[in-house]
Amino acid sequence: xxxxxxxxxxxxxxxxxxxxxxxxxxxxxxxxxxxxxxxxxxxxxxxxxxxxxxxxxxxxxxxxxxxxxxxxxxxxxxxxxxxxxxxxxxxxxxxxxxxxxxxxxxxxxxxxxxxxxxxxxxxxxxxxxxxxxxxxxxxxxxxxxxxxxxxxxxxxxxxxxxxxxxxxxxxxxxxxxxxxxxxxxxxxxxxxxxxxxxxxxxxxxxxxxxxxxxxxxxxxxxxxxxxxxxxxxxxxxxxxxxxxxxxxxxxxxxxxxxxxxxxxxxxxxxxxxxxxxxxxxxxxxxxxxxxxxxxxxxxxxxxxxxxxxxxxxxxxxxxxxxxxxxxxxxxxxxxxxxxxxxxxxxxxxxxxxxxxxxxxxxxxxxxxxxxxxxxxxxxxxxxxxxxxxxxxxxxxxxxxx
Length: 401
Description:
The protein is α/β, with parallel strands linked by helices. The chain has helices at about 5-15, 150-155, 195-205, 220-230, 250-255, 290-310; strands at about 20, 35-40, 50, 55, 65-70, 85-90, 100-105, 110, 115, 125, 140, 165, 170-175, 180, 190, 210-215, 235-240, 260-265, 270, 275-280, 285-290, 320-325, 335-345, 350-355, 370-375, 385-390. The protein is elongated.
């Protein structure tokens, strides 16, 4: 077995970003940017008012000012302004040359066509040209995930057709004679298939696209025939089950029969030790241990990285420090462990609350997890108050209880 660090390095080196495509405006949210986006002009592009009020020369010390007219947002500011004069302006309106102060309307008194300032503020209510950013400044870099603020910034910049990554096309094969569809009442020895739903949700949240999903019995020939029969293009194959060393765990042999090069099989990881990774040209495949919690952890620490590489995204591998809120049960393990948990704010700062985790098949205790507590190999026992690092789960965000 290799370490998780070695496994992640292998994945990074084996995979490369898919060719970029032109994004369609209105369908950019969640996509990965593949080009630099720079400001095409200064922002703001002109001096403008930050308040509803009156614009004048800041150095003009007159006690009252003749109101020359008004300038609304969207109108060109071609007027000139003499000393002793002002313009009625509104938030966002362009300021004529020489107007360097805006007095808010609540700080003046109107006397017909005259304005009497009750207070002066200098230039604090004027937004200067280029004060946000100068033309040519790079604002978004390749690998950025386009969330609402980034898409809004693209709109402001007029970049409505940026180069983005295509969604990696994922096919998912679930193995196991014991599995039945979720809507079926299991018979003796049968269980409902939860991995198909789990994988579909994780792939979608990570920027991929499930283009085919299917189930197959625990027969090597059936597995190979099923994969060979998928007649749509795909980039990543995820195999649920068949990853261990039992008589019916034929995953490695099936991948080799399909022409894949097995890069690793077995990682010093808990849960998820039997995980395997293989490549065939630009295509990749993962053997995922059959238990759903192992599925979930392996996705977060390995499969997500593969999708990020195909997307050309900045890796989402972020840890936050916290203090254990309670003791962890059990003894130390020779493998590094990722324990489901959640964060809360305590008297001493962030606290990591470990969730009940009785086995790798126990989804009940981990459904509320927002982080994975990282426990290094050969560490422990872990007691309440011990410092611990927590891996943020990207599809959940940083959730504080």
